[in-house]
Specification:
With 176 residues, this protein is of the alpha/beta class. The protein is 33% helix and 19% strand. The protein has five helices and six strands, in the order E-H-E-H-E-H-E-H-E-H-E. Helix 1 crosses helix 2. The N terminus and C terminus are likely disordered.
Length: 176
């Protein structure tokens, strides 16, 4: 159960998200329904998200369905394409109350890690759309959850029965 219930206080709760990017289509529907259910437990919601594909974007849509607001913390690796080339991302960015872009010199994972940590810093509660696997890359879900817990943040894991990740494909790492 997520923190505060309706009617318990007047402030908007800042809820961040971390989660898997590769999800089966059926998992997307299950996760969306579960997130909406969880978010409706709060009087008001302000989301904090990196708007990565998968869980982050499902979360943003769930926040909107609950008439909440959200801000985006975008990881922008040094030598990557501009995030604005992603049509789905641009559609969501139009609804963000604030957009912060973070670039960390070096491998792309540095920007992902910095953005994930910024999400954790800005939230009262972190929702982890996570299958519980400890395997992952720098700045990924498992690492972000561990960092949040180590820094005293409340974490709520959401992984509905029947949810599945898509087959993992190897992630190319930069050379040099």
């Amino acid at each position: 159960m997520i923190g505060q219930r309706r009617g318990e206080g007047d402030t908007m709760k800042r809820i961040g998200v971390t989660g898997h990017i590769r999800l089966e289509p059926s998992a997307r529907r299950l996760i969306y329904r579960e997130l909406v259910k969880e978010l409706r437990e709060h009087k008001g919601v302000h989301g904090v998200t990196c708007l990565a594909e998968g869980a982050d974007r499902i979360f943003a849509e769930a926040v909107r369905a609950c008439r909440g607001t959200f801000e985006a913390v975008l990881p922008v690796p040094e030598h990557s394409a501009a995030p604005e080339n992603d049509r789905d991302l641009c559609g969501l960015l139009r609804h963000a109350t604030d957009v912060t872009r973070l670039t960390v010199p070096g491998p792309p994972e540095g920007s992902y890690e910095a953005a994930s940590r910024e999400v954790v810093e800005r939230c009262d509660l972190l929702i982890a759309v996570w299958d519980g696997s400890g395997v992952g890359l720098r700045g990924g879900t498992a690492e972000t959850v561990a960092w949040a817990v180590a820094h005293g943040k409340q974490v709520r894991r959401v992984w509905p029965a029947g949810a599945r990740r898509s087959a993992l494909s190897p992630v190319p790492l930069p050379v040099g």
